[in-house]
Amino acid sequence: xxxxxxxxxxxxxxxxxxxxxxxxxxxxxxxxxxxxxxxxxxxxxxxxxxxxxxxxxxxxxxxxxxxxxxxxxxxxxxxxxxxxxxxxxxxxxxxxxxxxxxxxxxxxxxxxxxxxxxxxxxxxxxxxxxxxxxxxxxxxxxxxxxxxxxxxxxxxxxxxxxxxxxxxxxxxxxxxxxxxxxxxxxxxxxxxxxxxxxxxxxxxxxxxxxxxxxxxxxxxxxxxxxxxxxxxxxxxxxxxxxxxxxxxxxxx
Length: 252
Fold this sequence. Notes:
single chain, alpha/beta, five-stranded mixed beta sheet, 7 strands, 45% helix
């Protein structure tokens, strides 16, 4: 999974392209990006959003089939992937782009199984003492799964907000599960101690490109989170936690 390491190191461990709007100088990319964000924030149904997003992306890639850079990043800006539509878009790219981004699109296809509004798949985590935790067993609670690492500045910058939410709502059924991509155990434990992180922690303690969970769920940049409601339905996912106290209160 070489693309994971490339993207993480190029953008300082977590600042993915999807968080950065295209430059104003590239008017077509910027216009498409803006349209995608407008669709995502609209009051349309999720299926309507998916269809409009697909058409916007197909229009961009059809006109710029050799633009792997922005074609790829515009796909990243959409957090709801549809496997069938994704395959159609991938085939529009030039052959050279398909080869260059083959691993990346494999990750996007994996993400397509993790759709907002759908049941979150079974995920069994093993802690450092080899004790299993099945996410499905947490039904009845609101669960936030946070992928992070001690070396990820943007990840740790979000911790104070998450700690505040956790302390306020943990007794009402809010569960935070932190999955670290750390390889060094001492660095991982030190970050947990230094940042006073009070929730459940898991870590494979292997290199980023060998991490089983990042491979399984197609996670190519961190921070990354999944928010699951009491019924086990995936409400949201993405690179930056956007949940507010008001929204969390409604869920609980």
